[in-house]
Amino acid sequence: MLAVADILEHADWYAAQSGQRLARRWEKANTSALLRIVRNPSAGTPCRFRQEDLRDVRWVVIPGFSKHLLFYRFRGAEILVLRVLHGARDLESLL
């Protein structure tokens, strides 16, 4: 799953740059974002991508890391987390 790889890659980067404390804060922030969408899947902002197959994708900000976004889809009780990406990247091409 790409989202898990994204979270772990960023955690490793934060650990290397600033130590384990920041890496743990990153991981807790992702858990918080995930819990938010589990409690209320419609809480995320709908994306406005050109690709039709991405029109149902939503995003939430990772708390405390305002430039990082968690992208997901939901249908009924099912939530599919797609990616966790820095907002400055070419998001549509990465999804």
Class from helix and strand fractions? alpha+beta
Helical region count? 3
Strand fraction equals 25-35%
Helix percent band: 40-55%
User: Regarding CATH, which class?
Assistant: Alpha Beta
- Rg, Å, rounded: 13 Å
Taken together, the total number of domains comes to 1
State the CATH superfamily name.
RelE-like
Shape: globular
Task: Note the run of SSEs as H and E.
Answer: HHEEEEH
Low-confidence blocks of residues: none
DSSP E strands, number: 4
Strand arrangement within the widest β-sheet reads 1-2-3-4
Distance between the termini: 12 Å
Provide key terms for this protein.
95 residues; YaeB-like fold; 4-stranded antiparallel β-sheet; 3 helices
Give the topology, please.
Blueprint: H1 2-18, H2 20-39, E1 45-46, E2 58-62, E3 65-75, E4 78-86, H3 91-94
Antiparallel strand pairs: 1-2, 2-3, 3-4
Helix pairs in contact: 1-2
